[in-house]
Design brief:
Helices cover 87% and strands 0% of the residues. It is mostly helical and 121 residues long.
Length: 121
């Protein structure tokens, strides 16, 4: 499937934004949240409290939905570039059995990474 440059750039940009949002929300939940109570400096506690003022639930939802959007965009990205991926594998991996095994392993990794998100909803 031939993908236009604008479409590819849009998908890549949205993938980057969703990954950045997920990372920022994860850092807020893991690093900033504990600083509200345990930081020794007053200004650090105040800054952490300001970041957490919208609540843990909001940051968790941002983290969750940015991750879901990222996984969906990754699937679209792989589908749009499937011919390139299979062409590369055909050129650099001689054995058809090895190509099938690699494809199955990658598919299983995708399934394993998506299933927890489905049950988190």
């Amino acid at each position: 499937m031939k993908v236009s440059l604008k479409t590819n750039l849009l998908i890549d940009l949205l993938l980057f934004v969703s990954m950045a949002l997920m990372s920022i929300a994860g850092i807020v939940l893991r690093v900033v949240r504990p600083l509200v109570r345990h930081a020794q400096e007053e200004w650090v506690r105040e800054a952490a409290a300001w970041v957490m003022s919208c609540g843990r639930g909001v940051w968790f939802k941002i983290h969750l939905w940015a991750g879901i959007v990222m996984m969906l965009l990754l699937a679209v990205h792989l589908i749009l570039h499937w011919n390139t991926i299979t062409g590369y594998m055909s050129k650099h991996i001689a054995s058809k059995g090895a190509r099938v095994a690699i494809t199955l392993v990658l598919f299983l990794l995708l399934v394993v990474s998506v299933v927890p998100w489905v049950f988190a909803l």
